[in-house]
Amino acid sequence: MPLKVSVIIITRHRPDMLHACLEHLDKERDQDLEVVIADNSDPGKNESSKVAENFQWAIYLRIPHDRSFITGSRNSGARRATGEIYAFIDDDSMVYPGWLAACREAYSDQKVGAVGGRILDPEVENLDPLRNDPIGKIYPNGYLSDNFDCTPKNTVQVQHLRGCNCSIRQSLFERLGGFDENIKGYGFDEFDLCLRITKAGYKIVHHTPMQIYHRLSPRENSERITVSYKPRKTNIRNLSYSLAKHYGQFGITFLRFSFNLTPLKKLIRKPSGANFLLLIATLHGRIEGFLASLTTRKIHIQ
User: Fold this and answer.
1) CA distance 92 to 87
2) 41 and 28 in contact (C-beta within 8 Å)?
3) pLDDT per residue as tens digits for the range 5-51
4) DSSP of the chain
5) Backbone phi, then psi, for 135, in 5-degree steps?
6) I want to staple 147 with a disulfide (CB 3.0 to 4.6 A). Which of 96, 133, 178, 184 is the partner?
7) Are 214 and 164 in contact (CB under 8 A)?
């Protein structure tokens, strides 16, 4: 019997994207695919629920909005799911043909706890997919490589995945307690989960045929995260929190991340109001993440 896969989609005020996402999943459907929509839209915003009515095979949930809307919504969707594999995609993700079969295939190795796949988006479409850049690596200074658009011939073990195309064994997800709802706003909830998967002794892999196209809504655009205060602060806060939680507030990895002077150097090279705000947002995020980590359970990684 094929593994039952529960696809959990979180959405908020993006009915057109949700519709395209569901259309692509419809082409992959079989009796062992379950789809759960976790709609985080504000009261009175019913466009996404109307979209869901056109896809009666999907389970629709309305989730109250709060600051941990991504982690909270994903956890709510998982509580409703019944599959052996939980697959998380965003509402602006469109699966390619063969995505479901590829997801199942990668779990034939019982040591694999989580699987992600190729992610195409407008920012990487002109890059060479055969380049030999590190995929999903955590550097000693706490920063992460992406390169999930690459197409290695074989399944590659990685250290982290991206939340728009990642999956995990249901039993492991439950054992680890799901996503950490101390991670607020957007960014690094899947990174924190991946660190816990590794700590539990499981492999995380990048499996090329498990492929999606990520349309990149404005909140995921890397330029916005770089130049806008709140997205920058939130991203740095969540990364800082996760690194301090797992490597220790005074561990080498966290300290190297905390004392990275790149934003200051950028301001010195090119003084501007935008670069000054970038520096302040970075410092704000680091301090907020550090303080948040002091109240969470410590899970140190050597």
Assistant:
1) 15
2) no
3) 999 999 999 999 999 999 999 999 999 999 999 999 888 889 999 99
4) -PPPEEEEEEESS-HHHHHHHHHHHHTT--TTEEEEEEE-PPTT--HHHHHHTT-TTSEEEE----TTHHHHHHHHHHHH---SEEEEEETTEEEPTTHHHHHHHHTTSTTEEEEEEEEE-TTTTTS-TT--PPSSPBPTTS-B---TT---SS-EEES---TTEEEEEHHHHHHHTSS-TTS-SSS-HHHHHHHHHHHTT-EEEEEEEEEEEE---GGG-HHHHHH-HHHHHHHHHHHHHHHHHHH-TTSHHHHHHHT--HHHHHHHHS--HHHHHHHHHHHHHHHHHHHHHTTSPP----
5) -100, 130
6) 133
7) yes
pLDDT 10s digits, 102-133: 999 999 999 999 999 999 998 898 899 999 99
In 63-76, which positions are buried (b, 16+ CB within 10 angstroms) versus exposed (e)?
Answer: beeeebbbbbbbbb
Q: How far apart are CA 123 and CA 18, in angstroms?
A: 21
Give which of 227, 243, 229 is closest to 194, Cα–Cα.
Answer: 243
Query: Which numeric CATH code is attached to 5-217?
Result: 3.90.550.10
Report which residue type is found at 207.
H
Q: How many CB atoms lie within 10 A of CB 275?
A: 18
Give the residue extent of every domain in the chain: 5-217, 222-293
